[in-house]
Amino acid sequence: MSGADETHLVEMAGGGRIALYRFSAETVAPPLIITHGTISNGNSVLNLCNFLRAAGYDCWLLEWGGHGQSIPARRRQNFEHCAFNDVPTAISYVLAKTHASSLTWVSHSGGGLLPLMYLGKHPERQSDFAGIVTMGA
Fold first, then answer.
1. CATH of the domain at 107
2. Is residue 1 one of the residues assigned to a domain?
3. Interatomic CA distance for residues 12 and 27, integer angstroms
């Protein structure tokens, strides 16, 4: 991904992998996971990611469910599969790498539905989120 400081291709327990691109900045705020919508990839939120990094946020751009460099766990997957596999993998990975106790999810379109679906089934993980920002979800 153009401009990323680091690329992380993370294997998921249920198969497949997600792509996380780190756009790092020194910050005291929780890290951000920024993700795209259903029919796009990380390029669609790249400008937002660069803007937020310039504002001092540690940004992790997520490509989920077979978008960009991500590989889906199965040929035909749906939102549920991404919500219950890609989301917890991304959250756990970013929190472990940053040693943060929570993060903020910033997303466009279908990417905003993923954490909401995940929390609907796993409300005990609410403390992982400092906030959720959805645009056009």
1. 3.40.50.1820
2. no
3. 28
Residue 24 lies in a domain: yes
Q: Which domain holds residue 77?
A: 6-135
Task: State the maximum Cα–Cα separation within the chain, in Å, rounded to a whole number.
Answer: 40
For the chain, what is the HEC assignment?
CCCCCEEEEEECCCCCEEEEEEECCCCCCCCEEEECCCCCCHHHHHHHHHHHHHCCCCEEEEECCCCCCCECCCCCCCHHHHHHHHHHHHHHHHHHHHCCCCEEEEEECHHHHHHHHHHHHCHHHHHHEEEEEEECC
User: Quick check: is 111 in a domain?
Assistant: yes
Q: Give the tens place of pLDDT for each residue, 45-65.
A: 999 999 999 999 999 999 987
Dump pLDDT digits (tens) for 72-102.
887 777 888 899 999 999 999 999 999 999 9
Pick the closest to residue 86 from 23, 22, 9, 30 (CA basis): 9
Residues in the chain, overall count: 137
